[in-house]
Fold this sequence. Notes:
This protein is an alpha/beta fold. It has 4 helices and 8 strands. The strands form 2 sheets. The chain has a 4-stranded mixed beta sheet, covered by helices on one side. It has a 4-stranded mixed beta sheet with strand order 5-8-7-6, covered by helices on one side. Helix 3 crosses helix 4 (164-174). The protein is elongated.
Amino acid sequence: MHTLRISHPAISGRNAEATIHFYRDVLGMELVLRQPNLDYEPEEHLFFHVGNDNFIAYFVPKPGVDPASYPEAQGGSGHMDHVALDIALGDLPGWEARLQGAGVEYEGPIDRGYERSLCFKDPNNVTVELLAWITEPPAGMSQAAIIKRAQQIREARGAAFIEDRDVREAIAALA
């Protein structure tokens, strides 16, 4: 018996309409569910389809509930640091243009060794990272297997972090 995947992070937010606008209109995700939070009556449950049957859930106050009663999101120890969403490397410039066009301040592209990313805040102050592998995993090849093998290659060469060359070598070894 084993886990299959992360179904969704469930995040608390302050503003339903700003959250819907951001994830649907700015990031292009489909809002696939909007209903009362079955565990807490003053909230509604928003469910955004990220792609590939992965989701982000948000619990936000229903209209008439004071959003100031919800604390602002914060990173750091004991808190969620960020949500990372995979994108294609070739789409990175388009995402930059989309974020700029929507007036979203971002950092990046950030060099993460074998990945490049853009980081920004959503309307609830949650950090979102758009993450692109430099060498995309071949169809049907597990990202976990590639990362595990690339880690072994990195350690063998005494490097501080995985680089794209480690990923390419891992893919070749696993093919």
